Amino acid sequence: MNALQIAVLAGGSLALGLLLIGLWLVPAHPALASIAALVPVRRVAAPPPEDLYDRAGAWLTRRYRSPLPEADLAVSGKSAERYLGERLVLAAVFALAGPLVSLALAQVGVALAIPLAASVALVGLGWWLPSSLLRTQAAARRLEFVQALSAYVSLVAIERSAGVGSVRQALEEAAGIAPCWPFLEIRESLELSARQRVAAWDGLEELSAHLAIPELEEVAGVLRLAGHEDAQVAQNLRALSQSVRVKLLLAEQARANAVSQRMGLPLIAMALCIIAVLITPTILRLLTLM
User: Fold this and answer.
1) Are the beta carbons of 233 and 167 closer than 8 angstroms?
2) Residue 37: phi, psi to the nearest 5?
3) Half-sphere exposure of 51 (CA within 13 A, CB side)
4) Buried residues in 138-160 as b, exposed as e (16+ CB within 10 A)
């Protein structure tokens, strides 16, 4: 067996191994009838892991003991397995980045050793990045929820002014108007509270704690204080809706001011560069004379 045959055999073996690994990572698609036969009646089976992140997260979840950002995960609609899998996979990728860069540069004749501290910093960056992205996404989703909540409270006030039978009925009818996800969350919370035979505002308070949205807790507090048949419910809800809109407007103004300030930084940097270019010849001339 010559060198060419050995190289072909080695390449084929490597390709076969990579193919087998890929087939293991990609989830299988069994027949629907076989799955239905295995699932008992009135039992919901957990969905299998879908990709590498879910598989890695499922492995890490059984060993991870630190607290998780449950509220951020809930409002973002992301599972703990997915979140931990993203952190683990990115940390592993960033850990391999340094040695791979050194190896690639060595192939072209450039000797560059990545320090151990830099590799550890890259691992920390890969572990921290999904957490930062999750906080950003959760903040955006909460803002979207509060914006929808302002409209929802106004709709409830309109329902009460129209003479709807009870506060719960007004809440349920208003929640069924829009198909957006905040209205769906409120609708599910009201349905759960009805099945548990608890007050509607108790369900809204539970949803507020679950998603970490204090504005929803204020709505529940207004409903709790007003009671079921208080004539001031509509007026209180209108005032609360106006208060939420003012808070949103102030927040938008604050973000706009922050963006305006950041837009001025490039202009300041450009001005400093021009000043440096202008005064550098004078400073060099003075240094030469000295």
Assistant:
1) yes
2) -70, -25
3) 6
4) beebbeebbebbbbbbbbbbbbb
**What's the pLDDT score for residue 47?**
55
> Length of the chain in residues, anyone?
290
Closest among 263, 202, 214 to 243, alpha carbons compared? 214
- Is residue 201 within 8 A of residue 223, CB to CB? The reply is yes
- Answering whether pTM is above 0.70, one says no
Pairwise CA distance, residues 129 & 275, whole Å: 37
| Count of other CB atoms within 10 angstroms of residue 27 | 13
| Cβ neighbours of 225 (radius 10 Å) | 12
Question: Please, which contacts does 45-49 make with residues 24 or more away whose CB atoms are closer than 8 Å?
Answer: 49/81
55 assigned to some structural domain: no
* 185 lies in some domain: yes
97 touches 126 (CB < 8 A): no
* CA gap 95, 91 in Å, rounded: 6
**And the tokens for 255?**
């973000």
pLDDT tens digits for range 97-143: 877 777 776 777 766 666 777 778 888 888 999 999 999 999 999 99
Query: Which range in 9-18, 42-51, 85-94 is most confidently predicted, on average pLDDT?
Result: 85-94
In a domain, 114, yes or no: no
Range list of H helices, the chain: 3-25, 32-38, 52-61, 70-76, 80-107, 116-161, 167-175, 181-195, 200-211, 214-226, 233-289
117 within a domain of the structure (yes/no): no
Percent of the chain residues topping a pLDDT of 90? 22
Q: How many CA atoms lie within 13 A of 113 on its CB side?
A: 3
**Total domain count, the chain:** 1
